Predict the structure.
Amino acid sequence: MQKVRVAVVGWGNVGRGAAEAVMLSPDFELCAVVRRNAQPGQVVHVNGADIPAVRSIADADGAVAALVCLPTRLTTAAEVEMLKAGISTVDSFDIHGDALLEHRRMLGDAARRGGAVAVVAAGWDPGVDSIIRCLMEAMAPKGVTYTDFGPGMSMGHSVAARSVPGVADARSFTLPVGFGVHRRQVYVQLDGTRPFEEVEADIKADPYFAHDDTRVMQVESAADYHDTGHGVSLKRYGAAGTTGNQQMEWRIRVINPAATGQCMLSALRAGLKMAPGAYTMAELPVISMLPGGLEEIVKGIV
Amino acid sequence: MQKVRVAVVGWGNVGRGAAEAVMLSPDFELCAVVRRNAQPGQVVHVNGADIPAVRSIADADGAVAALVCLPTRLTTAAEVEMLKAGISTVDSFDIHGDALLEHRRMLGDAARRGGAVAVVAAGWDPGVDSIIRCLMEAMAPKGVTYTDFGPGMSMGHSVAARSVPGVADARSFTLPVGFGVHRRQVYVQLDGTRPFEEVEADIKADPYFAHDDTRVMQVESAADYHDTGHGVSLKRYGAAGTTGNQQMEWRIRVINPAATGQCMLSALRAGLKMAPGAYTMAELPVISMLPGGLEEIVKGIV
């Protein structure tokens, strides 16, 4: 069986997780890593192999698809270009609501033009959790779902905090207060160009933080707080037909970048079986996220 | 919006649960209940409405689809007839492995001939749990998944025990020993035609029970043990890429017939959007199990 050639775009924590997932998969091969600052002839080491590091997806030899591991705000423009060129993409776009819908529409248009597929908002949340939330509603249409994240470091929130002027480095932790309420605890290391109070105010005003109780703490070294463990508990209490007291819970505890990268690869596998367009993970049949023949999976897992 | 007319076939616990789910849905209406012994002009009461009870699906006025709530061993033949006549079906076929594959193939052939859709093995297990097992493998391809049922009454096992000669009534409970090992506790009420030891041996030899530690107890009234509460815990410990210690758990506690009936209806909703053929729930996009517009769901849940 010919393996599908895939590139990883972005070489942060998630990029490394995605690259390792590709290397261990039976049906994909890692053809390149796309890094903004790659030097000619550079390679990166992934699971003992040397993988070419290139500056542009156009230099990723034979790439059919890209796992786009960039900060959310950089994904749309980068993916539109790839999709128009016929390269399928997966991202872990982590803003919900209208912004996600608009992103999905733009990528869908580009994907149909390029004859490619985009899977948006893929990861454990959004992504797997989105599927779980749909499943819970399918089981109990009336009721309430609660999402409780953490304790864990949020990569999206850490990137957002780091982008505030005056911040040299930052780590943002999500702490579950319970039943859908969270506290954000942000450890910031200043670069000396702005006073802490201004940095703190800017972080609290950022859309990533504005809706939650956010506490910003100045620290000597934000890196000392780095831990990639994360988790979530999704609970729904609801009614199936006229019958109440139906209780469901999904609970995970994972290494965040590895889980995100793996989910993105599984989403790509399913996406490549779809017609050109853009899809969230909940729009993809779950069975097609797995390698191997359908009847084998039905026999073994279903 | 025109509602989709659906019949419920079989009027046991699951049939009643399915009928209530249909009555409360925004997009389906219950056109009839199919009962073997229905009398001319008979009605059944569902959520305060009078629903025609008929002997055959052919008498279910305008039925586009049927929720087939019969014992598993009666489903294949009944559904093949309906599918050939162009009526889509959903069942909760609860035998795994080769038997399920064969059932899916037979229904798929009939469905394609009739231009209809069959969703097989729909419910909370198999069905939702099958989706969860696939999702867990998509998140952590290497590792082990454990399924622990109960404590709860198994409808399939109770029906199997009741079908043993000499049994007047029976309730079979599934008890989680832990990490995939179960004990079956069967309460049997004899009809006086056979000694307990023979009944006990037949139950233990039945394929439904043969693989588990099964304990059969003779009781005065099996109905005194009737409780429809049930649940499951699905756990997976695995690796995403090279990263181990990824932990996932799905845990539910439900009223079994209501949950099964609701899952069957949600599966039907998704099935009706597919090309003619037979599908397990894991082959259906989860988002299409919910009523309402896709963009609305993406905005609200994903």
The mean pLDDT of chain A is 97. The radius of gyration of chain A is 20 Å. Chain A touches chain B through 72 residues (CB under 8 Å).
